[in-house]
Amino acid sequence: MGPAGTSGTASRNGEDERARRGGRVRLLHTSDWHLGRSFHRVSLLDAQRAFLAHLVATVRDRDVDAVLVAGDVYDRAVPPLAAVELYDSALHALADLGVPTVMISGNHDSARRLGVGAGLMDRAGIHLRTDPVTCDRPVVLHDPHGDVAVYGLPYLEPALVREEIGAERADHAAVLGAAADRVRADLAARPAGTRGVVLAHAFVTGAAPCDSERDITAGGVASVPAAIFDGIHYTALGHLHGCQTVTERIRYSGSPLAYSFSEEHHRKSMWLIDLGAGGEIAAERLDTPVPRRLARLRGRLEDLLADPAHEPHTGAWVEATLTDPVRPYEPMAALAKRFPHILSLGFDPDDRGDDPVASYARRLAGRDDQQTAEDFVAHVRGSEPDPHERLVLREAFDAVRAAAATAERD
């Protein structure tokens, strides 16, 4: 057990390796495993198993001091048994290495289910952070330069945690800001020179989303400013599936596997972070195994079947969009002969004419629930909703999201 107010202290093993790299603490940042998820009905369990084996090998081979898992461990609140077994085997492998793991719940996880047994797991070096109230109780790592306090901020559903966390408003910026304030207060009370690391599951302004993340909009605002994490030496983010750098000290690892065709050009990876004595950051991006490439093809059926430019995609998972003005006969069967791993087929004719369904789909493209509802009101009534009506719609959507989150939480 570590200093007063902490819930776990890592072992000092590996100090010789740290000395060789200038005393830096080495962290492996990953997130969004989504164990149990499939890809267009194709099981990804073997690919997820291969990734976790790669993760454990990386921890061993690169002398990692701690693993940070920034949420969405599972793909849903009640995961399938095979996903639970895979999670269990991964934790055993990490515990056997003697390397502490800090893990938070994401918006796909059931915080209460993921947190079962957290006290016992602490003793094995697996530190689960799923309760918002404990966000200011860090896991403390040691190096020759002092302490590194690692704080886990689980996904915070604003309507559910506002009072628990002491936030002024029920929106993402307010609840995450209140949690970060508690972290900074605890960090300030620790010995001078203590470095702070935060895990969080959120959509930070300036980052780029894709199609496979579940919407976390509340109060009409999904994103939070990066300034919320001011004063923290490194923030390991989860939720967005593309690996990206918001600032030098704020990064998304992204998901280790692609979960939608919108991730066709993603380079899937983890961050290896060396944290220096004064909080200096050295970041290295480590690629993760790719089970099969993705390809999004568009064109008329005849061209997709004959064009030699598509030859490199014959072994890929394929999403094809046909632009033929008239839907061809049994196109999936024809395409499967050239692209045996085709998973998705859509139609977007070059000449739509006055097709009202196509026109409506174009109007809805890229619009969130709030905007769609406001458009519907304007269409039916002939006038835009006034500010009070917009507020009523927003509160209704927030209530639905809160009810859904409560059901998953329970």
UniProtKB/TrEMBL annotation:
* Keyword match Nuclease: yes
The record's region (Disordered) falls at: 1-22
GO molecular function (one):
3'-5' exonuclease activity
Q: Which InterPro entries match?
A: Calcineurin-like_PHP, DNA_Repair-Maintenance_Comp, Metallo-depent_PP-like, Mre11_N, SbcD, SbcD_C
Which superkingdom, per the lineage?
A: Bacteria
Q: Name one Pfam family in it.
A: Metallophos
Question: Which Gene3D superfamilies is this protein grouped with?
Answer: 3.60.21.10
User: Which residue range or ranges hold the Calcineurin-like phosphoesterase domain?
Assistant: 26-114
The entry assigns this protein to a family as follows:
Belongs to the SbcD family.
The role this protein plays is:
SbcCD cleaves DNA hairpin structures. These structures can inhibit DNA replication and are intermediates in certain DNA recombination reactions. The complex acts as a 3'->5' double strand exonuclease that can open hairpins. It also has a 5' single-strand endonuclease activity.
Self-association and partners: Heterodimer of SbcC and SbcD.
* Name of the protein this chain belongs to: Nuclease SbcCD subunit D
What are the leading ranks of the lineage? Bacteria, Bacillati, Actinomycetota, Actinomycetes, Kitasatosporales
